[in-house]
Amino acid sequence: MTLSPPALPTAAIEDACEWAIGHGMALKTAPGMARHCAFSLAPVAISAERYHTLMTVTPLIARLVNGIAEDPLFLQQALTPMAKADPFFGHLLRLHRRLHGGLAQPKTPARLPLLILRTDYMDDQVLGPQVIEFNGIAAGMGPFGQRVSELHHHLRQHTPEVYRQWAEHPDAEAVENAALTQLAQAIAAVARRMRIESGEAGAPTFVMVVQEHEDNVYDQRLLSEALQEMGIRTLRRTFRQLHGTLSTGPDQRLLLDDVGGIDVVYLRAGYQYGDYFATDLEEQACCEALTQTRELIEQHRVAVNATVSQQLATSKTVQMLLSQMSPEQMGRWGLTPTQARQVKSLLAPMKPVNADIITHFAQGYDPTQWVLKNQGEGGGHCLFGDAIQPRLNAMDPAEYDAWALMWRLHPALRNRPTIAVRDGVARQVDNLVSELGLFTVHFNGQPMSPYNGYCGYLIRSKPADENEGGVHSGQGMLDSLTLLP
Fold first, then answer.
1. What range does the domain containing 403 cover?
2. Where would I find the Glutathione synthase substrate-binding domain in this sequence (predicted)?
């Protein structure tokens, strides 16, 4: 006898969709229109031991990334081959050299580094938690992470029978997630510090650099509104809108026309050529005018996330190099041998792409155990399984350094079905796996939260047979955590 699947709780799903829209957990679809983000109806569980490991080691990773970002000699030496293979990163490295000088004549830009980092993990069945990637520019969706945790709390309180049916471990304690609040508190503290240093009166001013026609606007606005409630003036500008409107005040103060001094610049754009492209500007080289706007910002005494250095330091190539370093080599950036070994334990194996690797891959590597990645941000930049070998065979040697092979992680499936809700439509999913991103904030190398820099988390779950797990672009959905003893 075949059992029918359980009936979907229609009233609870409708309530959850309305809650999501009402609390800004949404993506813009057209002017004046939005849809809720995809979400799971109940949370996933993680062991207390593994969660404690991530809470301990992730701030160490942030310290390491900060040290690398502030080491221009290493970045320029390590990334020159990759920059020759990847035109966009070549563009960034040229900008880095203008800001920091060459190896023979180094210089220090006036900006102060504000590192807002999201370190993404998967919990592999064999290796345990392993880093997927570092997100150092446009490291978003912290506000959504807090919101979906609040949604699950709402469902647990108001429809407990539904929650108990669909949560992985219904009696487990929820892991508090105050990512929106803690990120805002950290940024506000930096903005106030910069305003006091400037000697200017008035509210500290925060500028978020955004993409034109942004559809992920509500996540950004949740952060802006939280900052406004803390007394921070917030502005949204594209690079094109900033072009020609910035100037220099006393003591290298960054000024914006009709606004005055700027205390924090937070980039939610700048990770692709399109963010620097302007059809109405005459340029000798593509994207140069708006790149110079980004350069101008870093030449002033303003807190900046992400600096060009931070963007380079969170590249896939640096991640690969770290995976191959010894703990002693990591000591260059201030980690003790014990701390470096802790970091190493979370770095999944990676290999460069070269002629020897391509030959070995063809002769004996199992393609299902590897992922081929380029330097791109977001979804759509990875190849899996049988798609890897043809791409390797088709590569020109000049492309090799833009790519890397990473061990494919296989997290355990959620141990019971749950409900995925997308565009108001719910369906039961039996094979969800989850990706966990932990946020940290450091300013001038110092942690900006009481938790050693940790500022909340983002869980994205997806069906195990889907390769692209992004909420914005992919088959991922927002989720939250509960803690197993």
1. 349-408
2. 205-313
- State the greatest distance between any 2 C-alpha atoms of the chain, in Å, as a whole number: 80
Interior CA angle at 197 toward 194 and 198, to 5°?
Answer: 90
User: At 375, which CATH number?
Assistant: 3.30.1490.50
**DSSP annotation string for 203-272:** --EEEEE--TT-S-HHHHHHHHHHHHHTT-EEEEE-HHHHTTTEEE-GGG-EEETTTEE--EEEES--SS
> pLDDT digit string (tens) for 53-78?
999 999 999 999 999 999 999 999 99
The pTM for the full model equals: 0.95
CB atoms within 10 A of CB 272: 15
Report d(CA 221, CA 208) in Å as an integer.
10
Q: Measure CA of the first residue to CA of the last residue in the chain; give whole Å.
A: 37
Does 35 reside within a domain? Answer: no
At residue 440 the predicted structure's pLDDT band, cuts being 50, 70 and 90, is: very high
Query: Do 318 and 355 sit in the same domain of this protein?
Result: no
pLDDT at 2 over 60: no
- Output the six-digit token pair for 467: 């390769």
What is d(CA 70, CA 86) in angstroms, rounded to the nearest whole number? Answer: 22
